[in-house]
Amino acid sequence: MTEVKDGVIYYVMKDGYVKSGDMTSSRRLFNEMRFRTVVTWTIIIHGYCNNKDVASWNDMINGYALNGDVSAALDLFLAMLREVKPDEVTILAVLSACNHIAV
Predict the structure, then answer these.
(1) Residue ranges per structural domain of the chain
(2) What secondary structure does DSSP assign to 1-61, as a single string?
């Protein structure tokens, strides 16, 4: 039962750090967690995307591409264009997504 309580505490604290924009502290807590779930991974990824830096956008686009979700990758790329300038890594991630288009 202790692990569950610890997990909930980490989850709440990590979420609070993400919401306040303190990704350094959030990532530190994430790295300390013994057990990571889909929820904890989602929070950390969402936090990085909310910071709107190019690397965060690239990670998300590439993640969708690697999992074959072409529509989500391209939709995210279009959203990115409205907020930040893509770099070379972005283009590679988009090309990777396009590589998964079924013909």
Answers:
(1) 1-51, 52-103
(2) -HHHHHHHHHHHHHHHHHHHT-HHHHHHHHHH-SS--HHHHHHHHHHHHHTT-HHHHHHHH
pTM of the model: 0.51
| Cβ-contact 86, 54 below 8 angstroms | yes
Distance, in Å, from the CA atom of 40 to the CA atom of 34, rounded to the nearest integer, reads 11
Question: Measured between alpha carbons, how far is residue 16 from residues 5, 28, 29, 33 in Å?
Answer: 17, 13, 11, 16
pLDDT tens readout for residues 66-85: 888 889 889 989 998 988 88
Q: Is the pLDDT of residue 45 over 60?
A: yes
